[in-house]
Amino acid sequence: MNFFKKIIEFFKSLLKFNDPAYQEIRKLNKILIQKDLHYYNIHNHLITTDFAKDLFLFVSALRPLIDLSDHSIGHPDIRTSKKFTDYIIDMHLPNDVLELKSEFLPENIKSKLENAVMLDQEVEKLNQDFQKLIQKLDQLDSNKINEEIFQLQCFVEICRFDWERVLSFFDPGVTLSQKDYAYNPQNCEAEHLENELIDIYYLLNNFLFSSQLINNLGLLLAKIHPERTGNLETLQKICNILNKFLNYKLSGVVLLTLVRLAKKNSEYTPNLVHERQNTFLNYKIRITENFETVRNKLQREMREMTVNKDIQKLFANTQIIPVEEYNEETNLRISQDTPFHFTHIRPLSILKTFVQNKYETEIRDIIKKILIEGYFDNKSFQNNLANLVYQCDKTMNRIRAFERNLKGTGRSTIVSIKRYVDEMKHGKDISQFLQKIIDEINSDANEICEDESGLFLMLYLAINDLLNDQRKPNPDILSNIRTIGGLHNRELIASLNQSKDTLELFIKVMRSFVTVRGTIVQEE
User: Fold this and answer.
1) What is the pTM of this model?
2) Over 60: is that where the pLDDT of 455 sits?
3) H helix or E strand, kind and range, residue 46
4) Which segments of 316-394 does DSSP mark as H helices, in order?
């Protein structure tokens, strides 16, 4: 029976010799045979165990570098990855630029601001000095740096690829975590590997461990394990082994030939291009954002220190009431894992405390008493004052609506922020989306603070007008201002003066955080 089968196979092969498609396959396979690479079984359309074994050896040699990538520039936490990218760029900067850049470390910025005689002038000088740093960076050859980072990014893609999955097509039990695993591959049908071969071609074509790439990997290794000796020598040996594979057994020509054999198409060429980014430009944007974040945070903290006495005077021993969700606890969870933070926690909580513990308990009733019992000669003033109190009464509702929105399930909510933060921690680059949400929330908080503080400034001005009016021999606004409350009129006027002082102090405090349009008027 075997004899007859062989005869049948022989005649089948004779028929194939006259098939143009088969002839093309033979020509493709000949490319591999001439290199003494028996990676393809032309009779059964199989990728052979020879290829599987060589690929396994390549990946085994790559494993120490995969570990290096995972703990540095290829770290799953994108913030950590960018820190190592910035480190490599820093190592390519001239010493004078590095020295200038070190002046903008958080601790150095803090020292400058703390020792400043005039805070605003020192901040302006900081801004000017930072622009000098950016100008120096603009003068550097960014193309060279971009090319070296591009090589590192290609290296990271190779390390992140699921090599174990490809190898499992030949040996389903393969595990790369076991160092002494005895790889036992079987031939694999070529069409099953089409996509995987294209991926490998995309990753390895035109890639080599250049001297620049090896040097940069050495910098990363020294950064992670400074205590180890002989790092660069060991790294060089590993890269030499990998380059032998990349130049011969896993060269672009070999891999493209395998892809064409798997597809049975001698003209096929994958249309795959590595995305190139202007990494140096992103680096400048990143250090600018970091500088502005640190500067603004320290500037805000120092201004808060100067205004703390006024806050204590305003609220005495009363504690500041936190805004639900928009508070330090939530902010800590965000800022620990992202470069973003809430910017108006303090002013919004001060506004909430003022409304609850000052306006609603000490100021509002006095104004309403005047509105009810007063004889207004100036009806326009009366209407404006009534409308002003009505608007101030709605302040707490606006704050509560802000709190409810943050607790919701929509886009600009804490739930949404937490989801994006978790995704960033797992390596997804969605910082732009997260920043947009936090910016929107901060903008809403700022708008509430500015709008409502502006209302209370207007209320202050109205009270000031009433007090000035009651000093006149013949009041123009409120004819009975000296008799409202009867025997208790002096107490009412005293309370009105106290309300005015409280509002003036509140406006002063809020102006340390936000823009409050309008001018405090001195007594006539």
Assistant:
1) 0.64
2) yes
3) strand 46-47
4) 328-337, 345-354, 364-373, 379-393
